[in-house]
Amino acid sequence: MQNADAFNPSLMREPKDSYLTNGYSIKSWLLTKDHKRIALMYLISISVFFFMGGLYAAAIRLELLTPGSDLLQSATYNKAFTQHGILMIFFFLIPSIPATLGNFLLPLMIGAKDLALPRINLLSLYLYWIGGILTLYALMQGGVDTGWTFYTPYSTTFSNSYVMAVGLGIFINGFSSILTGLNFIVTIHTMRAPGMTWFRLPLFVWAHYATSLVMILGTPVVAITILLLAIERVVRVGIFDPAIGGDPILFQHLFWFYSHPAVYIMILPGMGVISEVISNFSRKKIFGYEFIAFSSIAIAVFGFLVWGHHMFVSGQSIYAGLVFSFLTMVVAVPSAIKVFNWTATMYKGSISYDTPMLYAIGFLGLFLVGGLTGLFLGSVGLTVHLTDTYFVVAHFHYVMVGGQVIAYLAGIHYWWPKMTGKMYSEFWGKVSAMLVFVGFNLTFFPQFILGYQGMPRRYASYPAEFQVLNVFSTAGASVLGVGLVMPVVYLTHSIFAGKPAGDNPWMLPGLEWRCQSPPTTFNFEEQPVVTWEAYEFGEENGLDIEEARRSAGRPVTV
Amino acid sequence: MAENHTDHEHIGIPGYLAVFAILIVGTWITYVVAFWDLDSIFPGANTLLALAIAFTKMTVVMLYFMHVRWSKELIWLSAVASFFWLLIMFAFTMQDYFTRVSGVFSA
C-alpha cells in the first residue's frame, strides 16, 4: 500500500534537525521566511491578544453579576465591551486559524517547501504587530467606546475616545489579512506537489482557499470605510453624519459588506479543521468530499449577499430587508450541507475519542445551535423583538466561540505533535475539552433566555429579575476560563517534558503526516509525489486507532 | 509571462506619461463638473458622472499601470471578479436606497 511508509514505527524518532533548531538567535526568528516559524510567532501573538480580550470579558461578566453598575461605571463598561470585541475579532478570531494553522500546514498539506511569497508572509506578521501595538497603545491611553462596529455618527462626531488610533490599528491590521489571503491563493494555485490535484486537496486547504477569497475581496472595503470615517471625523466632510449631509446607514452598508463576510473568515477555516478531524478520527473517507469543498466556496460567495440582516431595524427599506432575509436563509444551506456530511462521515466510522475529536464533536452541537439561532435573527419579523438583546450576544458567541474557538482548539491539539514533535497529556486534554464545553454552555445558553425575555445588550445594569441567569452566566465564564487556561499549561509543559510524538501519531494518510515531526525547514527531504486520494484509509490505517497503534507497536491512548 | 516584461515592452515612458495625463485630466474634469447642476436633469446625475470618470481612471490604471492588459487569463478573471464584487456592493446597497419611497413594501 502506498501509505505504508507513513506508519513505519522506525520513523518515530527524535529528529536532530528541524525548523525549530535552524538558528536560535532572535534575528533568526524575526527575519525568518519559514512559514512554520512565522506561524509560531503568530500563535504566540494571537494568544496574547486572546488573553487580553479575555480579561475584558472577565470584567464584563463580573460587572453583570449584580443588577447595579457596581464594578464598572457605564462609560467604562462601554469601553470594556468595545475593547473586548475589537481585540477578539480583529486580533484573535480573524487571524487565528489562517495565520497559525493555515500558515503552518498549507505548504505541508500540498507538498510545498514554503508559501509562494515568504517575504510577504513575514510582512503580514509585521503589519499585524504594528496594527496590534497601535491598538493596544490606544486602549492603554483610554480606549474607545463606540462598540467594535464604530457606528456613525457617534464615532465620527460625538465620541471623544481614541477612535482614530484604534481605527488606524485596524486599518493596518487589515493589510496583514489581505496579504495572508493573497499568499494562500497564489500558493494553492502554483505550489501543489505533482499529483496533488484540486480534488485531492485536503478540505482544510479548500476552506482556506474560500477564506482567502473573502479576505481579499472584503477587507479593502472595511479599510476604505474606516478611512472615510477618519476623513469625516477630522476634516468634517459629510459622508455619514446627517448633520453635514451624510447618511449613517451608508456606513452600516459599507461596514457590514465586510464584517458579515468576516464571520465566514472566522468560521470557514474552523470548518476546514473539523472536516480533517472528523474524517481522520472516524478512520473513514469523508462523506461527500466535493459537496463540502464547494459548500466552502458557496459560503464565501453567498456570504457577501446577506449583510443587510444586521440592519433590519436601522432604517433600511423593507424591500431590502426581505431580500437580505431570504438570502440569509439561503446561506444556511451550504453550512447545513457540511454538518450533514460530517455526521454522515461519523456514521459507522471507527470513532476514537481523542482530545481533538472531543472538541470536534462539541463543535457540531454548538455550531448547530449557533447556526439555527441565526435563522431566528434572519427572520424580518422575529428579529424586531430580538435585535440588540442578549439573544444576539448568545447567537454569535455560539458561532464564534462554540464554533471557531472550539475548532481552533481542536486543530491546535490535532497538529500539536506535528508542530512541536511532542505529545501532550491526553488526560488533561480531555478534561479541558469537557470543561470548555460545559463552561461555554453554562455561560451563553442563559443569554438566549435573557435576550428572549428582553434584556438589552451593552448596558452595565439590568432589572433585578434577570440576575439569576446572569449569575449562571458568570459562573459558567469562570469554568470556561479555567478550561481555556489549561491547554496553555499542559501544551507548554509538553514542549519541555512531553513524550516524542513520532512523525504520525494519529496514523493518518495525509501529506503533512509523511514528513518528520517537527518538520525540517524545507518540509520534505524529497519532492513528494501524490498518488492517493484525500482521506484514503488503507488496511493499515483504516483500523480502529487503538488497533492500529497496537499493530504498529505503539502505545495506546493514555 | 507578465512578470518578465519590462516597462518598455508595453507602452514605454511616453505611454505611461499619456496614461498619467489621462488621470490628471480626469481629475480636472471631475472638479469642473462638480460645479454644474446636473441634478436638475435627474437626481444623482452629478454623482453618476463623477463615478463614470472615476471608473474610467480606475480602468486605465488597472490595464496599463498594473499590466493587466498583458496578463494571463487568471489575472483577468481576478480583475473581473473584483469588479463583479464592486457591482454586488453597489447593487445591494442601492436596492435599499431606491426602495425607501412609499410603495408596496414600505410602511
Task: Report what the structure shows.
The complex is a heterodimer of chains A (558) and B (107). Chain A has one domain: Cytochrome C Oxidase, Chain A, CATH 1.20.210. Chain A is built from 16 helices and 2 strands. Chain A has helices at 26-30, 35-63, 74-110, 118-141, 154-158, 163-190, 203-235, 248-281, 289-302, 318-346, 355-378, 382-386, 390-420, 426-453, 467-497, 545-551; strands at residues 422-423, 499-500. Chain A is globular and about 70 Å long. With 558 residues, chain A is mainly alpha-helical. By secondary structure, chain B is an all-alpha fold. The radius of gyration of chain B is 19 Å and the shape is flat. Chain B starts with 11 loop residues before the first helix and ends in a 10-residue tail after the last helix. Chain A binds chain B through residues 189, 217, 221, 249-250, 253-254, 257, 304-305, 307-308, 316-320, 322-324, and chain B through 74, 81-82, 85, 88-89, 92-93, 95-97, 99-100, 103-107.
